[in-house]
UniProtKB/TrEMBL annotation:
Keywords: Cell wall biogenesis/degradation, Glycoprotein, Glycosidase, Hydrolase, Lyase, Repeat, Secreted, Signal. GO terms for cellular component: extracellular region. InterPro entries: Glyco_hydro_28 (IPR000743), PbH1 (IPR006626), Pectin_lyas_fold (IPR012334), Pectin_lyase_fold/virulence (IPR011050). It comes from Tothia fuscella. It is found in: Secreted. This is Pectin lyase-like protein. The keyword Transport does not apply. One of its GO terms (biological process) is pectin catabolic process. The keyword Secreted applies.
Amino acid sequence: MLLRSLPLLLSCLHALSGFAKGDSCVVRAKADAGDDTPALIDAFKRCGQDGTVSLPDETYHINQVMNTTTLKNCRIDLKGRLLVDINYWLEHSMPIYYQNQSTVWFLGGENITFNGFGTGTFDGNGQVWYDFAKGRSNYPRRPMALTIFEAKNSRFSGLRFVQSQMWTMTIMYSSNILLDNIYVNSSASNGARISNTDGADTLYADNITFRNWTIANGDDGISVKANSTNIVIENSTFHGGAVALGSIGQYAGSFETIENVTLRNIDYLGGFYAAYVKTWTGKSKGIPPNGGGGGLGSITNVTLHRAAGVFFITQCTHWSSGGEPGNCDTSRFSVHNITMTDVHGNVTNPAVATLKCSPAAPCHDIKFDNINVAINGTDKKADQYICTAVERPIGWACTETRAVEQPWVRMLLVSSPRINRNQPAMSHCIVFLQPAKLVASLRLLILESRSCISEHRPQLATAPPVVVLNP
Ligand SMILES: *[C@@H]1O[C@H](CO)[C@@H](O)[C@H](O)[C@H]1NC(C)=O
Ligand SMILES: *[C@@H]1O[C@H](CO)[C@@H](O)[C@H](O)[C@H]1NC(C)=O
Ligand SMILES: *[C@@H]1O[C@H](CO)[C@@H](O)[C@H](O)[C@H]1NC(C)=O
Ligand SMILES: *[C@@H]1O[C@H](CO)[C@@H](O)[C@H](O)[C@H]1NC(C)=O
Ligand SMILES: *[C@@H]1O[C@H](CO)[C@@H](O)[C@H](O)[C@H]1NC(C)=O
Ligand SMILES: *[C@@H]1O[C@H](CO)[C@@H](O)[C@H](O)[C@H]1NC(C)=O
Ligand SMILES: *[C@@H]1O[C@H](CO)[C@@H](O)[C@H](O)[C@H]1NC(C)=O
Ligand SMILES: *[C@@H]1O[C@H](CO)[C@@H](O)[C@H](O)[C@H]1NC(C)=O
Ligand SMILES: *[C@@H]1O[C@H](CO)[C@@H](O)[C@H](O)[C@H]1NC(C)=O
Ligand SMILES: *[C@@H]1O[C@H](CO)[C@@H](O)[C@H](O)[C@H]1NC(C)=O
Ligand SMILES: *[C@@H]1O[C@H](CO)[C@@H](O)[C@H](O)[C@H]1NC(C)=O
Ligand SMILES: *[C@@H]1O[C@H](CO)[C@@H](O)[C@H](O)[C@H]1NC(C)=O
């Protein structure tokens, strides 16, 4: 049996000083480093309505799931530590019923103020999970630390999330949430692949603002998913990850939307794109359908304003360790009305945008304005726009029209410590190989991986042979 430590730190530096009108609960960590979950759950029961739950600066061991979704007018000031037995979590983590994801903690209710004072930290001790999952994407029941669930009119501020064991958090069935001054950093100490450590995901969420985030991780920085509306991401810095619109359209028969997303004042350091869209293919394959999607819906009214970096669309998302043919021309998911203005910065290749839309539902009304992106190390402007199935471009023209996206087959980057040691930030890289190359020798795989690493830093503009990310 594996016994591992998985710290979850939530912090409080503040005295309680009569803040709340209701009760104040102060939870002290058990001296013998035992399970603090029962005491925490009890505190939320007693002080979760019109009260304050405070965890002084100690280490808390959270060895069981927590489900505190009916808080009201509650202030949380926390610092703690999550100690975890992987076997426990693989059996008990709570499903969120989307993409096989699960969670340690459902936190929800109304008017929650969650303060970390800049030091309160969720520490997922992800290394043990990165080692355990060995690069396998979305390992079933590998839980995210926090799911903000059925919350409204709430604020999460000054928190740190380090070494997330999975997606860092999901904001789900929630509205009117501000998350500001948040720091996220997940990296593998030994260069192992650390995919799936998204900074945050939104699902069925409305009016969510991410402000002043700093994210360094091995996957999407923030990923806006099914039925996310009125989302703002601003004044933030991404190291490596990007803002993903999707993945979306995985479930045949579902209609999902992403509407009115504003990204502004964002720095991307060493990432691939400023933002990118990923919809699944139009063909449902596998259970859950990781070989292709078939879902319908639209992504519309997205604005990216004042950012460094470039833009990318794919409608060919499928994920299957054995590899499935592309069906890249089949998605009927509609991507339209996207604007990028005042984009600047340096990229490593000449494309401002690579838009590989599905001929079954061409993208349309995509506008670029005041784009001033230089090819790094030169005074040449990046000025190429590579298109597949894009209609009615506004303010730009395709410089290269490509036929349907190649039926790339997604392969995990095989473990390659040599490469990873040198380029830990890229260790999550995923390689696309054309079917013909599937017979390729290991040598070729490594070669492809290398080209992925050397050619696509810091900001990948054009597409194959490599694109980041799992769904
Ligand atoms: C969490 O608590 C809510 C409200 O009490 C309940 O409806 C829900 O079923 C619980 N979820 C889990 C996974 O136990
Ligand atoms: C929100 O909760 C805080 C306690 O955390 C309380 O002081 C405040 O009055 C509540 N606001 C509303 C509108 O209920
Ligand atoms: C999803 O989770 C179930 C069990 O929870 C597992 O049987 C299945 O293989 C998982 N699917 C994938 C694609 O990981
Ligand atoms: C959106 O959420 C914010 C809190 O982050 C709130 O102040 C604002 O009133 C909400 N807007 C609407 C239209 O509900
Ligand atoms: C942004 O958040 C950081 C903590 O991550 C904090 O130190 C800084 O003061 C915040 N900046 C603003 C303008 O609030
Ligand atoms: C888009 O979202 C922003 C931020 O939540 C909001 O202020 C604005 O009113 C929304 N626009 C529309 C058309 O709903
Ligand atoms: C975001 O950054 C811009 C530019 O630095 C600044 O003008 C604006 O006040 C900031 N917004 C917030 C809400 O802090
Ligand atoms: C998602 O939004 C669409 C369009 O508004 C709606 O038809 C669908 O029921 C929503 N799905 C869920 C699960 O809420
Ligand atoms: C897109 O934005 C326009 C103008 O703000 C608004 O009229 C329209 O309803 C929006 N569409 C969606 C689907 O949000
Ligand atoms: C597209 O979205 C922008 C806001 O991003 C809005 O101003 C415009 O009216 C929208 N156009 C349509 C046709 O919805
Ligand atoms: C981009 O240029 C800067 C100097 O202008 C240099 O330090 C950096 O290494 C270059 N990055 C790449 C990926 O070439
Ligand atoms: C971008 O490239 C230009 C030209 O090589 C260089 O002067 C500048 O320092 C680079 N900027 C950044 C942020 O790397």
